[in-house]
User: Fold these one by one.
Assistant:
Number 1:
Amino acid sequence: MKKFLAVVVVMLSSCAAFAFTEGDGLFQTALLQSLMQGEYDGVVTVGELKRYGDTGIGTFQDVNGEMIMLGGTVYRALWDGSVEVVSDDETVPFANVAFFDADITRGGVSAASISELKDTMTAIVREHGRNQFYMARVRGLMPMIHFRSELAQKKPYKPLNEALKTDQREFTCRDIRGTIVALYCPDYMSGLNTAGWHLHFISEDGTKGGHVLEVETSDCVVEMDIMSDFRMIVPNRESFDGKKLSVNMQEEILQVEGK
Ligand SMILES: [Zn+2]
């Protein structure tokens, strides 16, 4: 009996070292590359997405706003700068979600720019394994944050970088408290998503948010969930199967991400 207990303890501690538990993984709906090519029809409902996570980022049917999932609530940051809570029957063409548990917590993070914030977070990633997946929350005061959303698209859908040339709307807030939900994908994910960080913001009062283009943070808390498990679902339909998804879209993705 004693021997058996010892084995159990060893197994648990090795699990903890890899921060891997059942259900502790990253879930992705379709590819960023299919979204980029105008695949804006939903793949899963918001209700289904909640079975795979409580925290994440994405967009909605017709690219109708930026998605921020936080604490199990799904918010839509609209083109007019407003935010609404989204019902479970709305559909989602592209998203990444996970059940968030903070494997890493770092306080006192003050960054003068989005690139400085990303560098700080990437340094943490390097310490824990650059080829893992990370969901992050950056909470606290943002002296300045600049974010965007976009108007819903109509069929026939244009590629995302074309659509955003006319239909992106940008907003700046000062001295606002809130949470950035950020996803880190390793370099080898560049064919399915984008390598590095992708940041969305929701204010503490849930009234402002969007895809982050620039930010200053003041004494913020950065938490990260390390994930060693990745699952993706793709739509089974003609429009998706007609797309050539192995083409290199790095330039278009950088435009859309605002890098
Ligand atoms: Zn985004």
Number 2:
Amino acid sequence: MIRFLTAGESHGQGLVVIVEGMPAGLSISEDYIGAQMARRQRGHGRGGRMKIEQDWAHVVSGIRHGRTLGSPIALTIENKDWVNWTQVMSVAPVEEEVPRVTRIRPGHADLPGTMKYGFDDVRDVLERSSARETAARVAAGAVTRRLLEEFGIEIYSHSLAIGGVWASYDGEIDWDRVEASTVRCADPEAEPKMVAAIDSAKEAGDTVGGVVEVVAQGVPIGLGSHVQWDRKLDGRIAQALMSINACKAVSIGDGWESINQRGSQVHDVIEPVTDPSHPWQRKTNRSGGTEGGMTSGTPLVARFAIKPISTLVKPLPSVDLDTGELVQAHYERSDVCQVPPAGVIGEAMVALVLADAFMEKFGGDNVEETRRNYQGYLKTVGPRAMTGQRDAD
Ligand SMILES: Cc1cc2nc3c(=O)[nH]c(=O)nc-3n(C[C@H](O)[C@H](O)[C@H](O)COP(=O)(O)O)c2cc1C
């Protein structure tokens, strides 16, 4: 229902994204999208590029007088760094010789991409495979986040681990604290240790990865479906998060931890319904908000692992594309840790998947039509005696 496409090279003129399938009549502004984009740019461990860029998504189409039109929403994001790359990234052929990148970087798209597309310059791959593209995803995610907000769905994220340091927390997370933290950490004790892990990796010319947790609250029961593999919501979330650059694992709820436990310790007991306005309460949320490929009505909790950045100040040994001989991998200005921004990107991907599933379930060309459908559905969710369905039998 909601789909998006991005375009753009890291050092090209900019990024473009089109979001299609949004209902008409939703209020949204460039400032709202800009606030999400600014969140992606923060974080301890980011490199020099983020000091150059101050991302802003210009709305080209699909919004008029602060409201969506139901038509495709097109956004452009300028690359400020482009002015330094006009020759290297020129659309038209250039007179002067542009140095080729031939020292392949392990851990990147460099080698498979160069072979697959038949290039003689690794730059033809690395420009697009760069995580710069995720700025466009965050812009698209912001558009869908606005829709979800309208229905009381809020999405958050925090860094669960960085460089081997794990955060621990009991119960409610203080999301304001996470936003104020340079490493997006909810645990005040782990936070300085995470910062130190990043600093020590930087000093050693190395990089660190970690684990991010994304939480979506207020998600209604029944998004996604059990009937076909590609309609299962947990599968769609996993694909969306796995597609984030450097993501190497995704889990939902207790995920990997649940395999060491017995069934009685893993499943979420359903409690008797006493309050018809809050039916189907669970004692726990070990499942992370999905059962059988559908949302269960508890918060959606997904974790994903981000590998340490592949480009190292002290480059790894590699080979030259031309000669096949031993060289040091190419180094281009790079981050030391991308876990904090990955959280914001993860939120955007979850927002895109949830909004898609939400529109699939409730439809509507105008947000008020969507609201009517949504509210009508909520009246049917609950024990049949309480929703009046049993009386109708
Ligand atoms: C927000 C973010 C920023 C990143 N910045 C860099 C970077 O500065 N240098 C780098 O080598 N990799 C960076 N990466 C990771 C690469 O984009 C990623 O490792 C590469 O695309 C290959 O990953 P894959 O094997 O998971 O596809 C970043 C990733 C994210 C999510």
